[in-house]
Design brief:
The chain is mostly beta strands and 479 residues long. The protein has 2 domains: 188 residues, Sandwich (lipopolysaccharide transport protein A fold); 236 residues, no CATH class. 4% of the residues lie in helices and 46% in strands. The strands form 5 sheets. The protein has an 18-stranded antiparallel β-sheet that branches. Strand 14 and strand 15 form a beta hairpin. The N terminus and C terminus are likely disordered. Keywords: Repeat. It holds the Pfam family MORN. It comes from Suricata suricatta.
């Protein structure tokens, strides 16, 4: 009896200490032995089956469908560690099929998943607002897709492991477009860039850079170009690569022509030069590659008799230098990309002012260029030869003995009272001038403005083939 009495309480204690078994069928609550999981919901045959909620000790949970004890079907999962949430289809505890993943850091993904990773077609918006619609593989953009970047750029094309690769089209927010080959997220291979300035490059690219891009402007012709006073002339321009080849892959850069006259300071007075400029209209000297400086000088169209706004190819007033004496002239206010269609050009390409030309296959031409008469604020200074100079040679290197600088009175006529009447000069005086070709593509093509090109020009007196006399430069007086 004693033995029997001792055995009965022991058996009862073992039954009370044994872990509680999960419910067999219907609705029930079960806390797992490791205390990490707690389930409340439907059961079938002792397994979670139907709808229920599985809570995790860290605060996360899954709520949705279960099949034979596994998370399978439609449901919602919350991760306590990251704060991310997923609503959609599950297979064996992992997001699989179609669903929506929302990220606590910002953004979301809606589309196909496999084993918890983005796989197949989907729509991803990141925390910066960048928007991608297309194919995914192994959680990365892979295959055809369309991307809208934070800065407004849009790309449509092929992706490989989260990078643009293969053929694609990039439409930039500024209006530029690239269509062609990509490698590792940069332009690489054959491609065409139509820049928002109207410039176009068609050809090979390597690591995001055009292979045959222009590097300099070249004005063709002799080193020193001689023209007769008042006569028009033409200039042929090439854009050249580093190797000297013409950059035929480029179209549409805007080149602007301007002119300067040699600036000479005489040792006798720092305020005297080949042209004495009014103090109210100071000119910043421009350094040339010919060993002397020049100041801005107007150009005009030979078909027009004056220097009106519609007739001028360029003038000191319309061709201002940038602050600090820079060489790049500003485009006229009415010149902007897309301002109006250029004749024969693509729609939306701005037409050029008379003093500008667009490059075609790396070349441009300025025809009927003519130096205008000196502007009113320029007073020409002539060098009077003495009888001694006429008989012998003339000294070099400045006025020197026997040469006298004098401000020339404009050619005059006669009035009834015998007084001279001043008439403006009809053409540029004989002397040394400079023609400049500037790259004024705006904005600069691929961020690169070509250096200004210079051409040394000598104007000869009409009816003679004698070279014009130019005074030598004396030492500059202190400013």
């Amino acid at each position: 009896m004693a033995a029997a009495g001792q055995g009965s309480p022991s058996s009862s204690l073992r039954r009370r200490d044994a872990p509680r078994r999960p419910p067999r069928d219907g609705y029930g609550v079960y806390v797992y032995p490791n205390s990490f999981f707690r389930y409340e919901g439907e059961w079938k045959g002792g397994k979670k089956h139907g709808r229920g909620k599985l809570l995790f000790k860290d605060g996360g949970y899954y709520e949705g469908e279960f099949v034979d004890g596994e998370i399978t079907g439609e449901g919602r999962r919350v991760w306590a560690s990251s704060g991310d949430t997923y609503s959609g289809q599950f297979v064996l505890g992992e997001p699989q099929g179609h669903g929506i993943m929302k990220y606590k850091a910002g953004g979301y993904y809606e589309g196909e998943l496999s084993h918890g990773a983005r796989e197949g077609y989907g729509h991803l918006v990141d925390r910066d607002g960048q928007d991608y619609r297309g194919c995914f593989h192994d959680n990365q953009r892979h295959g055809q897709g369309h991307m809208v970047f934070r800065n407004g750029d849009r790309f449509e094309g092929n992706w490989v492991r989260d990078r643009r690769q293969g053929h694609g089209v990039l439409r930039c927010a500024d209006g530029s477009t690239y269509e062609g080959q990509w490698h590792s997220d940069v332009f690489s291979g054959l491609g065409s860039m139509t820049h928002c300035s109207g410039a176009v490059y068609r050809g090979m690219w390597i690591n995001g850079h055009p292979v045959a891009q222009a590097q300099r402007i070249v004005i063709l012709g002799p080193e020193v170009m001689d023209v007769a006073q008042g006569s028009p002339f033409a200039l042929s321009i090439q854009l050249q690569q580093d190797n000297g080849e013409v950059a035929k892959s480029e179209d549409g850069r805007v080149l602007k022509i301007s002119a300067g006259v040699r600036y000479v300071q005489l040792p006798a007075s720092s305020e005297v030069s080949f042209f004495q400029v009014d103090k109210d209209n100071p000119q910043t000297p421009i350094q040339t590659p010919f060993g002397f400086e020049c100041i801005a000088y107007p150009l005009r169209s030979p078909q027009c008799g004056g220097l009106g706004p519609g007739a001028a190819l360029g003038s000191a007033g319309r061709d201002p230098l940038l602050p600090g004496g820079g060489l790049e002239p500003a485009l006229p206010p009415d010149f902007s990309p897309g301002h109006r269609d250029a004749p024969g050009g693509p729609p939306g390409q701005a037409s050029c002012p008379e003093d500008c030309r667009r490059v075609e296959q790396g070349c441009a031409r300025f025809s009927d260029v003519c130096l205008g008469p000196p502007p009113p604020e320029y007073s020409p200074v002539l060098f009077l030869d003495t009888p001694h100079q006429k008989a012998g040679g003339r000294p070099r290197g400045g006025p020197g003995p026997g040469r006298t600088p004098a401000v020339q009175a404009p050619p005059g006529g006669s009035r009834p009272d015998g007084a001279a009447t001043a008439e403006p000069a009809a053409a540029a005086f004989p002397g040394e001038y400079v023609i400049m070709i500037h790259d004024v593509t705006d904005p600069p093509f691929l961020g690169h403005t070509l250096p200004t090109a210079f051409k040394h020009l000598r104007v000869l007196r009409t009816g003679t083939d004698r070279q014009p006399h130019s005074p030598g430069e004396g030492p500059k007086s202190p400013s």
